[in-house]
Every structure is written in C-alpha cells, then in structure tokens.
Amino acid sequence: MRKEFSFFELYDRFIDANIKGKRLQPNGKHISAGTITNYRYTRKVLKDFSEKKRLELRIRPIRKLNIRELNVEKNYWKKFYKRFTDYLYLDCGHFDNYVGQTIKNIKVFFNYLNKELVFEVGEFHKTFYVRKEDIAIFPLMPVS
Asked: pTM to 2 decimals?
C-alpha cells in the first residue's frame, strides 16, 4: 500500500495558506475573506459527507504509482464525485449553483496541491464537472 495523506489535514493547510497570504490570486492580490469562508463551508460539507457516508477521504501522491494503482485512484475520485454530488443534490437538497461552487472549490484545492505544494495528486479532479444555472432576474417595481 502506498503512502496516503488525510484529505482534511491537507485541506486545512490549504485554508491556512489562504488566510496567511501564502496563496495569492494570479494578479498578486490576497484571497478575499469571502472566498476563504466559501472554502471553510466546502470543508464542512465534505466532513459531513465523509461522516454520513462513512467514506474516509484521502490523498495519494501519484508519482510512484503503477498503472493498476493509477486506475484505482482514477476510479476512487470518479466514485467520490458521483457520491458527493448525489449527496449534495439528494440528501441535502442543494441546487446546481451551490453544487458547482463546491466542486469548483475542490478543484482549486487540487490545483493548489499539484502546483503550489508540488504534491502530484494527478489530474483526476479535472473530470469534475462544475454545474451552473443561469438564474433569471426579475426587477420588481415598488407598489404605490
């Protein structure tokens, strides 16, 4: 069995890097407090999912994995995505924009692991589809 890391320990490190300004936007600005709050909510939802579905979330660096082990990882994250989005839609009753934002935050976390920590966790997260729906805006007139 190859080395595994706790998903939540690494996610906490990600949040901490945002808070301390170690991780910046591409334009060099600090990550906003609102974005960090979104990352915290994503962590909470992931923790609730992990506990309710009894699924231990883990990260495995892919650097020294053989083909069979790479396929296991690919399937692990494919199943995670399906189970997690089903949980958000069916168990929690969330809608596309919320689910999409949550998945986007997870993708940002994986990019952080790959690019900033050079952790090499693979590109499996790139198959996560970020759902989005356009919400019609209806201006209301005051009643006189």
From this structure: 0.86
